[in-house]
Every structure is written in C-alpha cells, then in structure tokens.
Design a protein that fits this description.
Blueprint lengths: L48 H7 L1 H8 L3 H12 L8 H14 L3 H14 L5 H5 L2 H11 L3 H9 L7 H17 L3 H8 L9 H14 L3 H15 L5 H20 L3 H9 L8 H14 L3 H11 L10 H13 L3 H25 L4 H14 L7 H4 L1 H4 L1 H20 L6 H64 L56
Length: about 525
C-alpha cells in the first residue's frame, strides 16, 4: 500500500606500398639494387587500392578544385550505390567532414553516425579518427544521444585510449537506457582514471549498480566520482556534486543504513534543484528508524505553497501513515479527506488529458519549460521537464534541426542537400516522437499510480477504524480507557544566538527546511506500533 519510489573491431587502414625505385646508373657501373618495402597484409575482403581510387575519383577531383558542394554530391552518389557498399564507411566519414565545412553541423553528425554504424575492418582507423569531432559537433547541436547507439555497436573503431574512453562512456549510457546493465558496466571500464569523463563514468557506474540492487558496491563508485570531480566551482560541477550527494543517500537507504542516508540527504544544498527530492527521501529515512517527529517536520516543507507545483502524493500518504502510527486518528482522518479532495481532482485532470499525441505532449512540456504555462494539465506534472537535462537537450536538438532545415532551403537542389534535408528531418521527427511518447507514458503511469493511492487511502480509513475498535474493546474490558504510553520528556532548549517562533500556520521562504514538529504519541502501550523496514 505504502511504497518508497526513487529512478570489437580493431583493424588498421589499407596500407599503401611506395613503388620500388632505382637511381639512374652510369654505364660503367651496375645500378644498385634497392629492394621494395614488403607489402602490408591486406585485410581479407578489403578492396584493392585501384578500385578505391576509381570509386573516389570524382570526389578527389572536386576536392582538388575546391568544389566542396560537388565533392559532397560525389560522396552521396557513392552511398546511394549498393555496389559500393565496402566504401560506405569512408564515404560517410568524409561527408561529415564536408558538411561541417558547409555549416551543416546536424547533417554532419548524422553522416558520421552512419559511418560508425557501417565501418568495416579496412576503414575502421579512418572512421575512428572522426569520433572526437563527432562528439563535439553533436554536443553543439544538442544530440549526443544520436551517437550512443552506433558507439555501443562499434566501439572497436577507436584506436587510442582517450577516444575509446569517450565511446565507452556514451555507449554505456545507451546500454543502461536499454536495461543492459552488465554491458553498461563493461563499457564503463574503457574510461580510465584521468580521463575527463572519468567522474561521470563512475557516477553512472554507481547508478547502474544501484539498479542491480548492489548499493554497497555503488557507494565505492560514488566515492571515486566525488574524488575525481575535484573542487571545480563552475555551475556544471556544482550540479554534479549535488546529484552525487543525492545518489549517495539513495545507496545508503537501499543498503538499510538510514542514519548515513539522512546525513547524505541533509548535505544536499538548500538552493539545489535536488533539495526538495532530498527532503522527501530524508523523511523516508527518518520514518524507517521510527523517528516520526522528524518525518513530519521534513514533510511540512513540501506542504508549503513553495512546492505546490511538485508531485509528491507519497509525501501526503507518508504523513497520514505517520499520524496513524502515533494514534493521531482525528488528524489522520482530516489528512485522508484532504488527500482525496486534492488528488481526486488531479486524477480527473490526467484522465482528461489522456489520448493526446506524442507531438502534443512534447509541445505542451516544451511550452511549460519556456513560459511556465501548464495549460490543461496541473503544473506539477510538467514541472520535471522544466529542469530535466535530457528533455532540455532534446529541445535544443529540435531547435538546431529546425534552424538547419531553414538554411537548407537556401541551398540549391544538390544531391547532398537533399540527403541532408531527409536525414535531419527524420531525426527531428524521431526525437519529437520519442520524447512525446516518453512523456505520455510517464503521465499514464502517474495517473495509474494516483488511482492506486486513492484506493489505498480507503484502506487507511479501515485501519483507523480497526485501531479505534481495539481501543474501545480494551476500554470495555478494563472499565476505563487505556493510559497513553509514557514517553521521555525533555526540555527543548533553543541554541544561543537562535530565536524560536511558534508555528501559526504561515509559511515563509526562509523557514522552509527548518520546521520541527513535536508530537507526543497518543497510543496506549498495547497499541503502540513501530515501522517495519522493507
């Protein structure tokens, strides 16, 4: 009823032999014999050099004359000819180079993507050299995700350790997205200590290990990530550090070490975007050690107007259950009625939105991120997309694709421009469809979850009635109401230089996160319950 949510191919290029030569001899002397260098072994199935030169003759000619657009046309002609399949990898790689020069970075990224997918033994080295530039360009247009799949399928084209580490990290992200946790961990081993991506790789490793229910091992990875991240003070590093604290707390929680989980969650900065989530998860940690007062104090922050656009139905259920455990039955019933009223309306709103297309979901979430306008759906359901990095990258990528397609309208009808238009349009539509579908599925899951919680709230009412019945039965048998279980009374002293005000219903921004609740359990000793850790 009540739950806790959280979540090789390695081959060289074709070697060329310099032709044998001999100096011109005088008639009186024999010419010295100069042996030709031994020919490098040819990879089985590799095309010969003469065929290669013939296939790329038009491209080489156009490059020599400085005609980049026509050279790109020549490459498009190669990849359109099934008889020239062995040369597709090199052709796509060179096409990407030219498209960058022609100020078409998105199309260039998609060309390199194809090169990575079809690279063969004999052109692997040449194609692999494009990996760093492809990552830089994909990051510029906001679509690093488009390279993750090809990297995961052909990571062996990397010939140096740093490039192999880059490919391994992004390939591991793709493997994790597909649920291939073992493969993801294996790919992350390619990222060596000292690599710029090492801290991110160790963070991802910890997340994967948590997904495999190995929180103790994950803590080691998070510790390594924190050490590798260093003391940089830029915004990205600060955000990484806060995310690391949150994930560390989750690992401690999953391992049952609730005090350390509390410590980690409490270390998340109050100004961090992850702070409300840390407060909620910290409340769960206090609940697991039967510290109901601290649980209720932390949950008070999430019930203030400052978080009205956050989706925390479980926080409300946790508050109800906490009241139930200390026999605050009247207050628990009030909370149950409030929960049904609030989330019943929200549930109806989600049901009414159900049926919208992925494109409509994408546009609605994008509009909320840009303007804060939630439209017909409560803002709490769009709010995650206001800060989510993945959705932000998708918006940037769609904008980059749209801008590039506008510029392509000004390009004459060259074969390469038609290829670029088709490729960029297809990728833009694919992104909108994928993100819109993800949003649609998440909304549907939230609606289903909410309906389940509304049903569960009925069970709380039954539990309260059952507890009351037991209480009255004991009173009837004893001739009086049972005495409330005695608890230790301690003075709540205010620290020096601090001032304390009683809570009178108002909520101030500078008080959020500092609420303290003192509730004396009203349960007789015979009915006192404790939390059963799961």
């Amino acid at each position: 009823m009540l739950r806790r949510s959280s979540a090789l191919l390695i081959a060289g290029g074709l070697a060329l032999c310099s032709p044998a030569w001999a100096g011109k001899a005088k008639e009186s002397k024999a010419a010295p014999v100069v042996e030709a260098a031994p020919a490098a072994p040819v990879t089985p199935g590799a095309p010969d050099q003469k065929t290669h030169d013939t296939v790329f003759a038009d491209y080489d000619s156009q490059i020599a004359s400085g005609q980049k657009a026509r050279a790109a046309d020549a490459l498009v002609a190669i990849v359109a000819d099934p008889l020239k399949t062995p040369f597709f990898g090199e052709a796509y790689a060179k096409l990407g180079d030219l498209l960058v020069d022609l100020d078409l970075p998105y199309a260039a990224t998609l060309a390199w993507r194809q090169a990575f997918l079809v690279a063969a033994d004999w052109d692997a080295e040449a194609v692999g050299r494009r990996v760093p530039k492809s990552i830089e360009t994909a990051d510029k247009v906001g679509d690093l995700a488009v390279l993750q799949g090809p990297f995961s399928k052909n990571v062996g084209i990397a010939r140096t350790e740093d490039v192999r580490g880059q490919m391994g990290y992004y390939a591991a992200r793709e493997a994790f997205r597909q649920g291939s946790y073992g493969l993801s961990l294996g790919l992350l081993k390619l990222v060596k200590q000292g690599d710029p991506l090492y801290a991110k790789a160790k963070m991802l490793e910890g997340i994967v290990l948590n997904a495999q229910s190995k929180p103790d091992t994950a803590l080691t990875s998070f510790e390594a990530a924190a050490k590798a991240a260093g003391k940089a003070n830029d915004a990205d590093s600060a955000r990484f550090g806060e995310m690391l604290k949150l994930n560390t707390g989750r690992s401690y929680y999953a391992s049952g070490n609730y005090p350390r989980a509390i410590q980690a969650f409490a270390s998340v900065s109050r100004g961090s975007e992850f702070w409300p989530e840390a407060q909620f998860e910290r409340a769960w940690s206090h609940f697991r050690i039967d510290d109901v007062n601290s649980t209720l104090g932390l949950l008070m922050s999430l019930d203030t107007p400052f978080f009205k656009t956050w989706y925390y139905p479980e926080a409300d259920l946790l508050r109800i259950y906490s009241m139930f455990l200390i026999c605050k039955f009247p207050q628990a019933n009030i909370e149950i009625d409030s929960f049904r009223e609030k989330y019943g309306k929200l549930n109806d709103s989600l049901k009414a939105w159900n049926g919208h297309t992925p494109e409509e979901n994408f546009d609605a979430a994008r509009k909320y991120r840009a303007t804060g306008d939630a439209g017909d759906v409560p803002a709490m359901f769009w709010r995650p997309y206001a800060t989510e990095e993945k959705f932000g990258d998708s918006i940037k990528a769609v904008a980059s694709a749209t801008d590039e397609l506008k510029r392509l309208k000004n390009v004459s009808a060259n074969p390469f421009s038609e290829w670029a238009r088709t490729a960029v349009t297809a990728r833009r539509d694919e992104l909108i469809q994928a993100e819109g579908s993800r949003i649609r599925d998440r909304l549907a899951a939230q609606q289903e979850q909410m309906q389940g919680m509304l049903n569960d709230s009925q069970i709380f009412t039954i539990d309260i009635m059952s507890m009351k019945t037991k209480l009255y039965e004991q009173a009837a048998a004893a001739g009086k109401m049972p005495d409330v279980a005695r608890t230790a009374e301690r003075d709540d002293r205010v620290k020096r230089h601090y001032v304390q005000w009683p809570y009178e219903g108002e909520a101030w921004a500078d008080e959020v996160g500092y609420y303290k609740v003192e509730t004396t359990p009203e349960c007789p000793a015979s009915l006192r319950q404790t939390v059963q850790p799961k």
